[in-house]
Amino acid sequence: MKKTTLGCLLAALWAGLAAGAGSEDTDKKPVPLYTNDDLRRVSPHRDETGVNSRPAAAVPPAPAPAGTAAKGRVQGEEYWRREADRLRDRLRPLRERAEDLRLAIDERRRKPRVHPYSDPHIVAWERRLRMLDDRIREAESRLEERARREGAMPGWMR
Hints:
mainly alpha, 4 helices
């Protein structure tokens, strides 16, 4: 008797789920169907959308970007790779100083009887480290922004 009741219960549950799924389909909005008749009906109004319009006056050419060469052509890959190398050379001492500060902070935190996150030396060094990282990031983003504005490909900066 238990098997029969369980079977009926499962059948009723299944039928309720199937009926609920069908009602969701009827709630959806119908998708509009466009035919050739619709296209023939609107085709006389095609020129009203501006498809065949002409500009009233000639548009003057845009000014050349700041990074153009004397001949009027945009700087190429070699130029931007050289600029990226120059920036890396200029930033090398800052990166070395930042790495030295990181090592000093780690050493200080490992010492006994030092509060690793509230020690005055560590706090001061971390402030200097943040300032160095900000200067490095700012210099890199300035070059990247200049290159982007002048049309350099992103891979040329690597």
